[in-house]
Amino acid sequence: MNGIVLINKPVGITSFDVVITARKVFETKKIGHTGTLDPFASGLLILCVGKATKLVDKFLNANKEYVATIKFGNHYDTFDTTGKIINTDSKDITEAEFIETINTFKGAYLQKAPIYSAIKIDGKKLYEYARKNIEVDTPTRKVFINDINYLTKVSHNIFKFSVDVSKGTYIRSLAVDIADKLNTFAALDALVRTKIANYHLNDSVNLDKLTKDNLITFEMLFKDMPKIELSDYLINLVKNGIYLDERQTTLEEDFIVIDKNNKMIAYYEMIAENQYKPVIIF
Questions:
Q1: 17 flagged as catalytic
Q2: What architecture is the 222-281 domain classified under in CATH?
Q3: Do domains 64-196 and 222-281 have the same CATH topology?
């Protein structure tokens, strides 16, 4: 079986737990997820099944949207409220202050990763250092906040907001950075991923309801993608993984190669102007 599955991950389990369940349902070990959700987080997790595992990087690099709940007052070692409190402040935050502050984060900014994260330093994941109380400089990298919007005040010093971010953005770090601009402390209290690329949480299935029927097949996945028909001679070369160029097409996007019988042969990705590499040979 080949395709993708949109899962609504519940709170309390890891992303790999979802993969384990899916492997049993689809009776294959060839399943990968497209971006970790921490156990305390819920929402959209895209699984790639079979040959679709070659699409994992596509989804990892895609923009993602979240609904986040931030709680002011404490700073936690994990940057979320499941961790250990290491600093406290009693400052009250108004709605107006919160809205004004989050709006300053639109665009690019340098973000420091949480120490409890899977980023590797010298071959070890940051959380491995944290669990052994080993101090290490966490990396800073440029991320992009495409959009951020205030949603509601949940209760005293607790607010909910939505955010659309680039690859590699930690919403936990964003919560800490928002608080820092307000000269106080905060942590992420809840997180729901609502969108990856063009796929929405509303179209996902609960993990406990997952069946083989929930698979989005290649035919469904690529039905609206541009298609180019090639000769029998080129089709044979495509099946062997040949790169394509302006002699075959000048499309400025990814596409599907089909034969004269309209059969899908391969999925190609644009890597530069008039240069295309095969990602999946069907």
A1: no
A2: Roll (2.30)
A3: no
